[in-house]
Amino acid sequence: MRSGARVAVVGGVFVLVTGGLGYGAYSVLLGGEGAGGTENASASSEVRTGPPDREEIERTAKDFLAAWASGDAATASLLTNNEAVAEPLLTGFAEDAHVTKAVITPGPAVGTKVPYTVKATVVYEGRTKPWSYSSDLTVVRGLTTGKALVDWQPTVIHPQLTEGAVLKTGESSTAAIEAVDHDGKVLDKEDYPSLGPVLDTLREKYGDTTGGSPGIETWVEPADEQLPATTLLTLAKGKPGKLRTTLDADAQAAAEKAVKQFSGASVVAVKPSTGAIRAVANNPATGFNAAMQGTQAPGSTLKIVTAAMLLEKGLVSANGPTECPKEVLYQGRTFHNLDYFELPDSSSFGTSFARSCNTAFIKLIDDTHDEAALPKEARDVFGIGLDWKTGVVSFDGRVPEETGGEAAAQYIGQGTVQMNALNIASITATARTGTFHQPVIVPRSLDDRQVATASRSLSPNVTQQLNDMMRATASWGTGKAAMASVGGDKGAKTGSAEVDGQGTSNSWFTGFSDDLAAAAVVQSGGHGGDAAGPVVAAVLRAGA
Fold first, then answer.
1. Reported confidence tier of residue 29, pLDDT bands at 50, 70, 90
2. Could you give the CA distance from residue 370 to residue 372 in angstroms, rounded to a whole number?
3. Of 252, 249, 310, 315, which Cα lies nearest the Cα of 281?
4. Contact partners, residue 509, CB within 8 Å, separation at least 6
5. How many separate helices (H) and strands (E) can be counted in the chain?
6. pLDDT digits (tens, 9 = 90+) for 433-462
7. Which of 110, 361, 460, 482 could staple 529 via S-S, CB 3.0–4.6 A?
8. Does residue 173 carry a pLDDT above 90?
9. pLDDT at 42 over 90
């Protein structure tokens, strides 16, 4: 973690500028009179209940922001519902982050929420830099006092401040890096915002080995020392060391643009022949890297693994007939196809795959004579659940052993299966070549780390059948519309994952074009081809 000296700020000026809240403008000096939290006290001994009214919201926001602007952390913290936690963070804004001047401009209240902008000046060892950002606060009723209070969250101080984290300004403990793609093109947060958490992690992990020197920065230091710091402001640049990644600038740019179409979207692209990660993008683009760390059911995209297992056991063949009824009952649990469609008994297993028939897969679970067959296939062939060493933090998928209806639900990517876009992109890459190549975002040669290896590969015959079924899905099946604009040797699989308490299913889609595989998920996006499909197609086109 990075470190900086603690020094008190004397004589700095903090100002509250009125916005749309409708009260008079004023300014105060750090160390002068506080904003006066007593204005918020009720004139009577009666404890008020119910949501705070507009007058209380405006007065509480004004008093809190004014106290914060004045540098009076004690008074400001008293105006929150968590004084003990709020005061050190408010104090640290001046002492640890070295903010010597701040202009806070509130906007009009929206219900109980008051947005505001902070225009600050950070000074450290003679270096000065302006710093601007926006955040908001929410006013609630105190549970015991009945007073209107600011609902304390770390984001009140800064939108990227997390629980237990602090703001610091000082000389960074790790050197800056200049990350480049596999062709040497520079990758930065400004042009590729989704790479923010990735670049922060790479810097923390490899910054001291790339030949650079540290700079002076303002950053978020997380409570967990295993997590990387997040740089918010650079006062003086150090000499960055060059770090080559496996990413592709063109594919990354396409991924960034594609996920902006949908809130809650994530996408990852992987090179099947090597496991090199070519793109990682999320919307929202800051904070949690859902594309590589998310954990949720992937829906029918997991049928790639299920199909491989059934093919290996000789229970199906791509061109052999398979039943696809409207619904099927397995150990007391009923499963059905989308809109209860069915296929003629003469239809092939490849058709059931391309049309995403759930019942065709679940009907065969007893024939495996092993309810753990799917978890074994996922681990032994596709590397799911092994300890991946990508170069950054990742969740490596989970298909736990289950029985009964839960085991059946796994066959169609529901139940207790947990995946993210990285895992499904890797599954597609493995199906493409027949062999699992653990995804990496920096070359193994950088640190000689031991990557995960699967215990066996698919046979050429099974690999060919999987590719043919995915080609059918892309050419005339459920992936046809999304993949129409993609060239090369292409294949796909769609998925829609139902989530308890969520009205619309999550949209999943995965596909390949030549030697590039990609997978995407869009929260509440509906059918796989509708939302996630265009995201995957855009990345595949760019990476071709």
1. very low
2. 5
3. 252
4. 301, 479, 482, 492, 493, 494, 495, 519, 520, 528, 529, 531, 532, 533, 535, 536
5. 15, 19
6. 999 999 999 999 889 899 999 999 999 999
7. 482
8. no
9. no
